[in-house]
Write a structure and sequence with these properties.
Helices cover about 30% and strands about 15% of the residues. The two termini are about 25 Å apart. It has a four-stranded mixed β-sheet with strand order 6-5-4-7, sandwiched between helices. Among the domains are: about 45 residues, no CATH class; about 160 residues. The chain is built from nine helices and nine strands. With about 300 residues, the chain is an alpha+beta fold. InterPro entries: Transposase_27_IS1. This is IS1 family transposase.
Length: about 300
């Protein structure tokens, strides 16, 4: 089995049906906001100046499939929404409390659709800020299995709903990386394409509660010749994934395509609810209190939120 993982880590398959890992699969990929020569819609570089509007320079994309116009204010998180600009700090306080969307709409005197949009604007921003390409140091892997959920989708889904498998990686610095690993079953190619690219080769990996993750972690460490150093933390939180499943119940179902956002939210809450002491081998729980300032630095449109898809 160790030899199998060695092959997976050192070779790439030519099978076109196997989904390859790409960081661009996630909406949380960071963009270069300072590059004004790219179209923000298609990221094309064929851009020309296209006049002024209220004294602001506008541009047009010359890509035949795009052709959209924009200005340098495209990344302003408050564009197109005066109400959000005036009320976002108050909404952030309600957001942190995790109350229902209907309660948010009632407290803020906004519609249910607006409450949903604002929540996902915060979640998208949080997801971008907490994005980790690779996780290292001492890493524990636990598996979360959820039924595929089409909540909010008005299409009739007669197909069988898959099991969505997420591998949560938590390290001793309480960096948390949720990895969308597979559907129904974690296969060897799923490990190769979705899990291995997200792990630092110098990381010491421990698989918990799942036989395949245990074998993979053992092989990963052996292949990379990584040994557990003395005084390293062990058993950070063996039940982290189970706690997520309990936490998600308060939302009465979450659409699978938005799971990425909610897992980042949970990671944010979790990291702010514990205190890690380097001189002790365990995590000590303290009363939950998020000490976070209200800020938002990114923008996502309603159209892009609705168009979001599950990464696997």
């Amino acid at each position: 089995m160790i030899n199998v993982y060695k092959i997976l880590m050192n070779n790439k398959s030519n099978d076109k049906d196997i989904k390859k890992y790409k960081k661009s699969n996630t909406s949380c990929q960071k963009c270069n906001k300072n590059n004004k020569n790219l179209c923000p819609y298609c990221e094309g570089d064929k851009v020309i100046k296209y006049g002024f509007y209220k004294g602001i320079q506008r541009y047009k994309c010359k890509n035949e499939d795009c052709g959209k116009t924009f200005n340098n204010d495209i990344n302003n998180p408050f564009r197109y929404s005066k109400k959000f600009k005036d009320m976002w700090e108050k909404y952030f306080e309600v957001f942190l409390k995790g109350v229902s969307l209907r309660e948010c709409a009632l407290r803020m005197n906004i519609t249910l659709v607006t409450a949903f949009f604002w929540r996902h604007r915060f979640l998208h921003d949080l997801c971008e800020k907490s994005y980790i390409e690779k996780i290292g140091s001492y890493v524990e892997l636990t598996k979360l299995v959820l039924n595929e959920n089409f909540k909010g989708d008005r299409k009739y889904h007669k197909e069988k709903r898959d099991k969505i498998i997420i591998v949560n990686a938590v390290n001793d610095y309480i960096d948390i990386l949720p990895i969308f690993a597979a559907r129904n079953f974690i296969g060897l190619f799923d490990i190769r394409d979705n899990i291995i690219p997200r792990l630092d080769r110098k990381a010491y990996v421990v698989g918990l509660l799942d036989g395949r993750l245990k074998v993979f972690a053992k092989g990963f460490n052996e292949i990379n010749k990584i040994k557990l150093k003395e005084n390293k933390v062990s058993n950070i939180d063996i039940s982290y994934s189970n706690k997520i499943k309990t936490w998600l119940t308060k939302f009465n179902g979450v659409a699978s395509k938005y799971l990425e956002h909610y897992l980042s939210w949970r990671a944010f809450e979790y990291k702010n609810s514990i205190e890690y002491k380097k001189d002790k081998p365990v995590l000590e729980k303290i009363n939950f209190k998020v000490n976070a300032k209200a800020e938002i630095n990114t923008y996502i449109s309603w159209k892009k939120i609705k168009a979001k898809v599950i990464p696997i």
